[in-house]
Amino acid sequence: MKKTGLFLISTLTLHSMTHAQLPTAPKAAIKPKELTIHGQTRIDNYYYLNQRENPEVISYLKAENEYLEQVLAPVKSLREKLFEEMKGRIKQQDESVPYKEGTYYYYTKYVTGGEYPIYCRKKGSLTGSEEVMFDGNTLAKGHPYYNLGGYEISDNEELAIFAEDTVSRRLYTLRVKNLKTGQIYPEAIPNTEAGSFAWAADNKTLFYIRKDPQTLLGYQVYRHVLGTDPKQDVLVYEEADNQFYLGLYRMKSKKYVAIASDHNGVATEYRLLDAKTPTGQFTVFLPREKGHEYDIVHFANKFYVRTNWKAENFRLMEVTEGKTTDRAAWKEIIPHRPDVMLANMDVFVNHLVLGERKAGLTNIRVINQKTKADEYLDFGEPAYVAGIGYNPDFNTNVLRFGYSSLTTPSSTFDYNMDTKQKTLLKQQEVLGGFDKNNYVSERVYATARDGVKVPISLVYRKGTRKDGSAPLLQYSYGSYGYSTDPGFSSTRLSLLDRGFIYAIAHIRGGQEMGRRWYEDGKMLKKKNTFNDFVDCSEFLVKNKYTSSDKLFAMGGSAGGLLMGAVINQAPQLYRGVVAAVPFVDVVTTMLDETIPLTTGEFEEWGNPKEKKYYDYMLSYSPYDNVEKKAYPNLLVTTGLHDSQVQYWEPAKWVAKLRTMKTNTNPGQETQLLLHTNMEAGHGGASGRFQALKEVALEYAFMLNLVGVQQ
After folding, report:
1. Exposure pattern of 561-572 as b/e (b: 16+ CB <10 Å)?
2. CA neighbor of 399 nearest in space, from 377, 369, 428
3. Annotated catalytic residue: which of 642, 643, 675, 686?
4. How many CB atoms lie within 10 A of CB 579?
5. Would you give the DSSP letter of residue 340?
6. Would you tell me how many other CB atoms lie within 10 Å of the CB of residue 129?
7. What percent of the chain is predicted at pLDDT more than 70?
8. How is residue 510 annotated by DSSP?
9. What is the β-pairing status of strands 118-123 and 104-110?
10. Per residue in 640-678, pLDDT tens?
11. Each residue of 547-576: pLDDT tens digit?
């Protein structure tokens, strides 16, 4: 018996489970379909699984769910225990730190047993009477899924735009509520974008984005006046290029309503409208230009511009109103630095605050614009994440920011930018006897096969031995320039306390190490992402953080693509893999522009209608590269209503793996499991507790494979 952390891992149990014969797995019918392009024909035996309304397809998905329950029957009680354990760490009656905007203090709270947040406010002071704006638990009644997609308060503080999704397709219905009377107005505008709406200054005109219900792309901006028929709403802007994503918001200064067009890391364009003239014309801040990304903050009579114009890692400039289209009038404030990426910014009456990335870590920089004094906040941990919070008020010297690390729960601070005093307002309370001093975090670097140093953040319970005996879960995402920062997770404690080490591999395709890190992990360099992950795994094994028979990998969505590519490249490295809502049928999906969000992805993966991209994508697409060989144990999850990665991609992948994987003989079998949430989409179950059941499933799958059943 080996003792790791708090729980015993039995080698006897591990041996006996490995050689137990699994129940008979379902098999999807083979119905070959020819797919021809560039003079090449691929045969897809499971193409028909994209028929969401087909009873045969639904029956197959349900059969897979039943099979999963049969295979994991030995750990049914463990799943229940994990769920209760993770739920037990959550403070059920909880409240966020209030922030002041206008004359009100806004906050959210949870009540005991409540799945959803309650959105509240108090006028004048925190001792004022509480107004409940939206009770998520009441709104969710009768719906298996519910999501409140943000809200926006009118200038007179009496009205609120809000958006609801009850299907998990990210098609929101926009409504308006009178916060004084409690009345919800009769207007119900379907197929809108969550969070992308804004009031004009007249308290009766609002703007919103309409989405194409087929592709799910937001492509039109409409103006609506309260009390009028939404069918008469005025189209104020239509995006003609279906590779651009639209956003809409009211700027912090409240002077402008802004439309943001973003070409997925390739180009940006803003259009602005004075909020006091809602029937006016939106004007372009600076016309779009391939390769130029920028974002803007308005203050007084000028704009601050974060731009990559002649600055790969971005620089900060300012320009006076009315001169924005003349880049000769732009003045540099913070120059480009090759080793520091300017990630974001916030502006106050006397201070400028910058969010920066250096050596894979986040930093907050505060500049006094009067004295020019410049400082970085010190956090004192090897791996952490810190970020500028929500600061709606210009006229303050207090910065709200958030902080977390692999061992420090999510914390909210106020920082006086003049006195340098840092005040902890709230730290996530973790119940169940949590003590951060029982855990250790590390930051190490693996050398990739091309010589690049890849950071790895690790956390484990004190006393966990680094002699190869500990199970380890390695997580990554590695796409879209999204950085996976080393933050805290209370659910993760259920693995750490059972002897697991948890590792985040900060692979290329993210932006942890600057913009070049992203550029070197996309398009025709995408394989760097997969290679980095495998090389990090080999580093962790070589340095005895774990061994191949106890190494697990996990990724979701584009990280699920990563999982598929990794097990095709190096299946022998992993004991088990969790692929959540995985994007695995890359070529077929990217050739189908009717599938949601395809066209906007061309600058991430390439357009396979061009042969060079087709050939490259085909060379790594997990579904197309399944071979007759031994694969590791695999848990694949999806949602029937997934709007980002359609359910049929993972379903087809599992069906093909069933016929191709060679380790199927009694005594050599590996688990291949598919779980479809029949009521949810890309984000899984809604509600703070229901989502934990999916985490419990993932953890039980892995713990089962290393002999932990308690």
Report:
1. bbbbbbbbebbe
2. 377
3. 642
4. 30
5. B
6. 7
7. 95
8. B
9. antiparallel
10. 987 668 899 999 999 999 999 998 877 678 999 999 998
11. 999 999 999 999 999 999 999 999 999 999
**pLDDT value at residue 629:** 96
Identify the bridge partners of residue 578 per DSSP, sorted by sequence position. Answer: 554, 635
Model confidence at 682, pLDDT cuts 50, 70, 90, reads low
The span from the CA of 22 to the CA of 519, in Å, is 44
d(CA 272, CA 260): 9
- What tokens does 273 get? 């409208």
Q: Are strands 384-388 and 398-405 parallel, antiparallel or unpaired?
A: antiparallel
At 9 the pLDDT is 36
Predicted pLDDT at 643: 66
Long-range contacts: 35-38, Cβ < 8 Å, 24+?
A: 35/588, 35/591, 37/591, 37/608, 37/609, 37/614, 38/611, 38/614, 38/615
Of 639, 687, 651, 595, nearest to 168 by C-alpha is 639
pLDDT in tens, 379-425: 988 889 999 999 999 999 999 999 999 999 999 999 999 999 999 99
Q: What is the pLDDT of residue 18?
A: 43
Closest residue by Cα to residue 35 from 587, 702, 606 = 587
State the pLDDT at residue 436.
96
Which contacts (CB < 8 Å, 24+ apart) does range 9-18 have? 9/471, 9/499, 9/706, 9/707, 9/708, 10/707, 11/707, 12/707, 13/707, 13/709, 14/705, 14/706, 14/707, 17/74, 17/704, 17/705, 17/707
Q: How far apart are CA 377 and CA 679, in angstroms?
A: 44
Catalytic residue of the set 494, 557, 621, 686: 557
Q: What DSSP letter does each residue of 555-612 carry, written as one string?
A: EETHHHHHHHHHHHH-GGG-SEEEEES----HHHHHH-TTSTTSGGGHHHH--TTSHH
Q: Tokens standing for 11?
A: 């080698």
* Whole-number pLDDT of residue 562: 98
Catalytic residue list contains 155: no
pLDDT at 88: 94
Q: Is 592 a catalytic residue?
A: no
Mean pLDDT of the chain: 93
Sheet architecture: strand order including 245-250: 245-250, 256-262, 268-274, 283-284
Catalytic choice (494, 497, 682, 686): 682
Question: How many alpha carbons lie under 13 Å from residue 470 in its C-beta half-sphere?
Answer: 30
Extract the tokens encoding 78. 């463990």
Structure tokens at 558: 């584009």
C-beta of residue 603 within 8 angstroms of C-beta of residue 641: no
Q: Is 682 a catalytic residue?
A: yes
The DSSP line for 81-118 is HHHHHHHHTB-SSEEPPPEEETTEEEEEEE-TT-SS-E
Q: Are 402 and 386 in contact (CB under 8 A)?
A: yes
CB 236 within 8 A of CB 258: no
Is pLDDT of 630 > 60?
yes
Beta bridge partners of 634: 577, 672
Q: What is the pLDDT of residues 422-479, one digit of tens each?
A: 999 999 999 999 999 999 999 999 999 999 999 999 999 999 999 999 999 999 999 9
Residue 250 and residue 68: Cα distance in Å, rounded? 47
For residue 651, give Cα distances in angstroms to 25, 49, 285, 638, 646: 14, 7, 45, 8, 9
Residue 144 pLDDT class (50, 70, 90 cuts)? confident
